[in-house]
Amino acid sequence: MNPEITALNRLRGALRQSVTKLENYIKQGASEDKVVLETKLTNVDTIRKKLFDLQKRYYELPPEADLTETDEAIEQVETSLDEMEVSLKYLISEHNIDDKSTKFNIKENKTAKLLSVKLPDIPLPQFSGKYEEFGNFKSQFISLIEDNDGLSNTQKLYYLKSSLTGEGKLIQTTDDTYKSLLKALEDRYENNRPVVDSQILSLINLEKLNYESAEDLRKLLDTVKKNLRTLKALEYDRNNLSDHKFDSPEIGQRN
Fold first, then answer.
1. What are residue 191's phi and psi, to 5 degrees?
2. What band does 101 get if pLDDT is binned at 50, 70 and 90?
3. Going by C-beta distance under 8 Å and a sequence separation of 6 or more, which residues neighbour residue 247?
4. Which pLDDT band holds residue 180 (cuts at 50, 70, 90)?
5. 103 domain-assigned
6. CB–CB of 223/202 below 8 Å?
7. Within 152-213, where are the H helices?
8. CA-based Rg of the chain, rounded to a whole angstrom?
9. Which one has a higher pLDDT value, 220 or 30?
10. Is the pLDDT of residue 30 over 70?
11. Domain with 70 in it
12. InterPro entries given for it (predicted)?
C-alpha cells in the first residue's frame, strides 16, 4: 500500500478514536457543568476541521488511488460529529434555561422584598392663602392628586378642600366641583401683582441686624435671594419694578 495512504489512514483512525471517546462521554451521562459541555462542543468543531483537512489530503492523492472505503469512513465520522453537536447543544440549552430561571427567581425575590417594604405616606400639600406659595402648592397637588387616574373628581375635590387652610379655605364656588374650585384658586392666586407686592414687602420688612452675626447675615442673604428669585421668575427685573404700581397700603405708606 502507498506509504502516504497508510499515514493518512492512521490519522483517520486517530480522529475516529477521538470521536468514539466523545460518544462514550455523552452516552455515559454528560457532565452537568456547562463549561465542560462547551469545551466538548469546541472539541467537536476541532475534530471536524481536522477531518476536512484530512479529506483534502486524500483527494490530492493520484487518481488511481481507490478512496471508496475512505469516503465511507469519513462520512460515518461526519455523521457522528453532527449527532454529538446536536446532543451537546441541547444539553447546553438546558443549562441556559436553568440560568434564566435562576436569574428570574432572584429578580422576583428582590421585587417581592421591595414591595414588602412599606414606604411612608406622602402628606397632602397645604395652602394657607399666601400668593407666593400657590405655584408650588399647585404643582405638588397636580402631581399627587390630579394626575392620579385612580381617583374620581369627587375624591379629588375632597382632597383639594382638605389641603386648604387659612384664607385659602375661604374660596367658594357656585358649582361644588373639583374643576371649579381649582379654577377659582387659579383666578385668585395666579395674579402676579399681589405676589410682587408681597415679595417687595418682605424685603422692606427685613429685620434690622442689631449686631454682626455670621448666622444672621446668612439668614438675611438667603431671604433676599429667595425674594429676588421669585421676582425674576415673574419677569420683574429692575426696570419692570420701577414701573410697577403697588396695591399694598403698607408699601404705599413707605413711598
1. -80, 120
2. low
3. 193, 194, 197
4. very high
5. no
6. yes
7. 153-163, 178-189, 192-204
8. 43
9. 220
10. no
11. 3-97
12. DUF1759
Per-residue pLDDT band for 37 (boundaries 50, 70, 90) equals confident
Secondary structure, 3-state, 54-123: HHHHHHCCCCCCCCHHHHHHHHHHHHHHHHHHHHHHHHHHHHHHHHHHHHHHHHHHHHHHHHHCCCCCCC
The answer to whether residue 186 is domain-embedded is yes
In this prediction, residues 57-71 reach a mean pLDDT of: 81
Q: What is the amino acid identity at position 57? A: R
Q: For residue 255, is it within any domain?
A: no
Give dist(CA 135, CA 233) in Å, integer: 11
Structurally, the chain folds into a number of domains equal to 3
Q: Check if the beta carbon of residue 58 is closer than 8 Å to that of residue 8.
A: yes
Same domain, 144 and 206: no
- Tell me the average pLDDT across 214-224: 74
Q: What are phi and psi of 164, to 5 degrees?
A: -90, 135
Instruction: Report yes or no on 163 lying in a domain.
Output: yes
Residue pair 201/193 in contact (Cβ under 8 Å)? The answer is: no
